[in-house]
């Protein structure tokens, strides 16, 4: 024990002990009653002590309670349409993630939630040694894109996930790069794949600090374009990547980091990404926040988990359409359509286990559906008359013209702009069964809890509602149908004149205008008849960005694939906690050990002195100096 600890052991309360020793030695046989006089009554001095933390006029119960979180803002543009936001929260924009009650400083609850969720849009501090990085390359059918992500050290709480953000360069723009064509174009020359993808990796290497390269995981994940290739060609492409990339780059790149993912995996990653951005994976003990009680797989013997309700996703691309949403434990789902996802870093913990229904429908994307529809028009026209005659097409704007070519034949189309008739013509393409649980192409679909569910629609769901009709955000079937019907019935010449005046979205072109009527009808039918959402359903939001971030399935991919990384930080945090507790315990233990030893020694001395007095009752007190005459002992 050091000198400092010894000094600290001499507590002021020990002073009476030292004062009591001479008194004990001068007394012959102190009785048990002596020494008790003057002992204070316990509890005295506590009168009038106020309640700590109380305030005469304010209590926590008096503070305003924010309303339960509704759908968040999709983008600043949507906020501007709803009205100006409330000022008064300047610190919310200083590059930190804040959790603000909407009633604290922003009277507008919607704006308060927006500020609470908008993440850091400042340039990533590459000089911060506590930041980690990850790279995901999305090898799609039309091109490949690289995304660079970063995250700080894990906070040590096993219930929290890594706070992964998209890296931003010095201009505060997301670190993203895209190249064309798709990787599947190199099926016949797989030895050139590494050269094809090298510019993406060089771009990422320039942004990730050199000192972090060896610990930065790199994932190259291929989607629809590679799925259609024979397995032998897929294997040849992946082998070239696994062989050449480690030679030129120092990223953490193992055999499992390059693969062709299934449509099911892609759907799960997209579902993870949107729910992570919305904060639906943040567990809380607050009853106002924990809005759903879930019995997760593996927790049958434990209490149910209280957590936020997740949202479902709808995604319609050019080739396929996808749906994904969480289903309860007691809902039976075909194994091929069910994914049980554990986002936690500990496989034995069930707080982050989710059962997700995922279905991908090839041929049900906007462009693929249009091709199938045109084939049906061609077939029906050949049965009726010569293909040279113009065929009325209710799915083209009024008076719009189009030409089809099939097997050397041409077919002229003339738009009639009948939205209702177009929907009727498209229904057979859904291939929907008559069963109550049947979905697109006869695939089984578990029921959706319409009263409490919430869905986000991406890609074509957003383009159909926003690019031309300018209705992105909250979806209303009645409003959308009226707007689409009016658009289809408008003459093509009028639509072109509006386009030239710049009345549509900047990235809307004449191709979008020509097929807007068809895609609006197809989206409407897929959502309401294919997926069986009633037209009264009001909890769909179409979005391109959520909280100023373009949500990509790559975010969900890196979140899932790095889920075990927090284990190191959690173990270090636990070690620090144990070490700190042991130091505190050690000091207290040494403190009382010294006191116990002191009392034992003191008691031994006292017993020894008392024994001497019994053996030599006439001996003088020990403190009488030598040379003084002995005192007479009476008796």
TrEMBL record:
Active site (record annotation): 266 (proton acceptor)
Keywords tagged on the record: ATP-binding, Glycoprotein, Hydrolase, Membrane, Nucleotide-binding, Signal, Transmembrane, Transmembrane helix
Positions annotated to bind ATP: 318-322
UniProt record, GO biological process: CTP metabolic process; UDP catabolic process
GO molecular function ontology, one term from the record: GDP phosphatase activity
Enzyme class per UniProt: hydrolase
GO (cellular component) term, any one: membrane
UniProt xrefs under Pfam families: GDA1_CD39
PANTHER family xrefs: ADENOSINE/GUANOSINE DIPHOSPHATASE (PTHR11782), ECTONUCLEOSIDE TRIPHOSPHATE DIPHOSPHOHYDROLASE 4 (PTHR11782:SF29)
Name of the protein: nucleoside-triphosphate phosphatase
Taxonomic placement: Eukaryota, Metazoa, Chordata, Craniata, Vertebrata
UniProt gene name: ENTPD4
């Amino acid at each position: 024990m050091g000198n400092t600890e010894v000094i600290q052991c001499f507590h002021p309360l020990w002073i009476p002990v030292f004062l009591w020793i001479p008194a004990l030695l001068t007394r012959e046989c102190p009785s048990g009653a002596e020494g008790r006089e003057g002992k204070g009554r316990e509890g005295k001095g506590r009168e009038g002590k106020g309640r700590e933390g109380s305030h005469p006029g304010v209590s926590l119960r008096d503070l305003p309670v924010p309303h339960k979180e509704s759908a968040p803002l999709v983008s600043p543009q949507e906020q501007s349409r709803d009205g100006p936001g409330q000022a008064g929260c300047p610190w919310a924009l200083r590059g930190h993630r804040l959790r603000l009650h909407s009633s604290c400083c922003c009277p507008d609850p919607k704006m308060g939630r927006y500020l609470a969720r908008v993440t850091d849009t400042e340039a990533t501090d590459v000089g911060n040694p506590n930041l980690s990085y990850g790279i995901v390359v999305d090898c799609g059918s039309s091109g490949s894109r690289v995304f660079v992500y970063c995250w700080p050290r894990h906070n040590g709480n096993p219930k929290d996930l890594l706070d992964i953000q998209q890296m931003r360069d010095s201009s505060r723009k997301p670190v993203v790069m895209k190249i064309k064509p798709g990787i599947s174009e190199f099926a016949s020359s797989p030895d050139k794949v590494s050269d094809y993808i090298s510019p993406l990796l060089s771009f990422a290497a320039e942004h990730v600090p050199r000192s972090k390269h060896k610990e930065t995981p790199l994932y190259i994940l291929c989607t629809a374009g590679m799925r259609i290739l024979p397995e032998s060609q897929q294997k040849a492409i992946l082998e070239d990547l696994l062989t050449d990339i480690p030679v030129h780059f120092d990223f953490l790149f193992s055999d499992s980091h390059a693969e062709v993912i299934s449509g099911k995996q892609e759907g799960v990653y997209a579902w993870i990404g949107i729910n992570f951005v919305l904060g639906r994976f943040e567990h809380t003990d607050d009853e106002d926040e924990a809005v759903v009680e879930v019995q997760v797989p593996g927790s049958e013997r434990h209490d149910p988990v209280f957590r936020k309700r997740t949202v479902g996703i709808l995604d319609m691309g050019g080739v396929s359409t996808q749906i994904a949403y969480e289903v309860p434990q007691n809902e039976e789902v075909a194994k091929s359509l069910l994914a049980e996802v554990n986002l936690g870093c500990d496989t034995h913990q069930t707080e982050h286990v989710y059962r997700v229904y995922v279905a991908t429908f090839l041929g049900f994307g906007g462009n693929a559906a249009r091709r199938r529809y045109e084939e049906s028009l061609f077939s029906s026209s050949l049965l009726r008359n010569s293909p040279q005659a113009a065929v009325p097409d209710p799915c083209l704007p009024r008076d719009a013209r189009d030409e089809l070519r099939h097997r050397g034949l041409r077919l002229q189309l003339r738009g009639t702009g009948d939205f209702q008739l177009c929907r009727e013509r498209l229904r057979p393409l859904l291939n929907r069964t008559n069963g109550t649980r049947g979905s697109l192409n006869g695939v089984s679909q578990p029921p959706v809890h319409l009263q409490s569910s919430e869905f986000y629609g991406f890609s074509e769901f957003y383009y159909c509602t926003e690019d031309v009709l300018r209705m992105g955000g909250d979806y209303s079937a009645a409003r959308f149908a009226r707007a689409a019907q009016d658009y289809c019935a408008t003459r093509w010449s009028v639509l072109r004149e509006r386009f030239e005046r710049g009345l549509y979205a900047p990235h809307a072109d004449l191709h979008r205008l020509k097929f807007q009527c068809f895609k609006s009808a197809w989206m409407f039918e897929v959502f309401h008849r294919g997926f069986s959402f009633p037209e009264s359903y009001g909890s769909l939001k179409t979005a391109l960005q959520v909280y100023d971030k373009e949500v990509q399935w790559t975010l969900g991919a890196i979140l899932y694939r790095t889920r075990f990384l927090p284990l190191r930080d959690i173990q270090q945090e636990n070690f620090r906690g144990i070490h700190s507790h042991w130091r505190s315990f050690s000091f207290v233990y040494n403190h009382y050990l010294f006191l116990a030893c002191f009392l034992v020694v003191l008691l031994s001395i006292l017993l020894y002195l008392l024994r001497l007095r019994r053996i030599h009752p006439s001996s003088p007190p020990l403190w009488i100096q030598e040379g003084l005459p002995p005192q007479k002992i009476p008796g």
